Amino acid sequence: MDTSASMTLHAGPEWPLLTERLGIRPAAPGDAEATWAYRRLPESSRWVTSAWKDYESYARSFRDPARLGERLVIESEGRVIGEVVVRLNDAWTQSEVSKVGAGVEAELGWSLDPGFSGRGLATEAIARVLRLCFTDLGLHRVHARCFADNQPSWRLMERLGMRRESHLVAAALHRDDGWLDGFEYAMLADEWRERQR
């Protein structure tokens, strides 16, 4: 993703985004230490795409402008308890309409401190991020992938009304478990608006 798309994410709404119990804001380099506290835990790193072995490598990802530009942090009572990645993408288009399809999709990913799981906080946060995507950013489509064995993730997507679009057979390579099945979920702006009525 290019830097201009990252800047669009952070320039979109007025920060922080608020929910009943949470604040969501753009990540900053200083958030590396707070997120490392739970990202280093095996139960937290099991399903995420990158599991860093040491803090310095992890902290470098918070200094990379492209990665930082798509990363948001979730706060509860002033404490960082999770992250959400909003990776803006172009839609798959024919060349004649490629400008219309530029930057109209987002891929989501998230991680929550295991000490805060089971309280509906991830659902609350991702619901607010969907609102960001479809209202503030005016996106057409949002999608997310997960390993089929990661039930908390795909159940969260289903609770939010995301539609399972594909069951990918042995298409997701896990660092410890080898080739696993994966799911892809998505939601269109029209579907999101219909759920809000």
Automatic annotation (TrEMBL):
PROSITE patterns: GNAT. Pfam families: Acetyltransf_3. Gene3D superfamilies: 3.40.630.30. Residues 22-190 form the N-acetyltransferase domain. This is RimJ/RimL family protein N-acetyltransferase.
